[in-house]
Amino acid sequence: MTNEAFQALLARGPVLLDGATGSNLMRAGMPRGICTEVWVTEHPEPLLALQRDYIAAGSQIIYAPTFCANRRGLARCGRENDVALLNRQLVALSREAAGGRALVAGDLTTTGVPLEPAGTMTYHELFEIYTEQITALAEAGADLLVVETMLGIDEMTVALEAAQSVCALPVLCSMTVQADGSGYFGGTCVEAVETLQELGAAAVGINCSTGPDQLESLVRNMKQAAKVPLLVKPNAGMPEISPEGEAIYSMGPAAFAQHMRTLIDAGAALVGGCCGTDPRYISALRDVLPR
Hints:
By secondary structure, this protein is α/β, with parallel strands linked by helices. The chain contains twelve helices and ten strands. It has an eight-stranded parallel beta sheet with strand order 1-10-7-6-5-4-3-2. A two-stranded antiparallel ribbon has the order 8-9.
């Protein structure tokens, strides 16, 4: 997919993304504490069913389950030398689920380690981590890239530069923020928009973070600075933790959709759900999209 084709897609109105993946896979039997990316390749049916349900609900873009499929993330389960293999397999599964009915985004995220001098990660090391995964995603046939749940502007910048060094796919950059819009590794969501759009991001926004009912002022502030489309993919409210350690999200699909419509009116152009959402939320969101 070219940047021109991506802009043409946005010109037709708000674009509907998918919802959560990990929490729904756990409901389908994935154990806690394992490597999601490896488990999915060994148990593909729950992922295929989930993504097909998202597409049936209205998702125009689904995220391949490649979230932590980078060298550092895969080292936690001893698969750091299988970056290309696993990304290829995971994108292929999402393309199978899509069946040409939706675009497939190659998904990548933070390593969780701050860049120097705040942390121990060097620019070169992080650039190489992202370059390796993005090369694999592009070669696997991803239609575009989503850099999501990032903790700071610097690491998003490195991921964007890595992508631009190996492919011409549109890159969507999304940061998770605190209630005041601050990133956990520095910067704010408004500063992220200002910085990343100048560096060539196709869209910038926020995901995870909190529920949509708490994001209107942040989205309006980002919109004032934005020259590119805004992406908003929040949780189904703030969770409560059950005695078993499970996160319980109280905001239902109808309320989620109504709050998301407020965010669309405030300037969000790519919308979906993060933690606690499922295909019901995407279906409800589809029903409130501007016609």
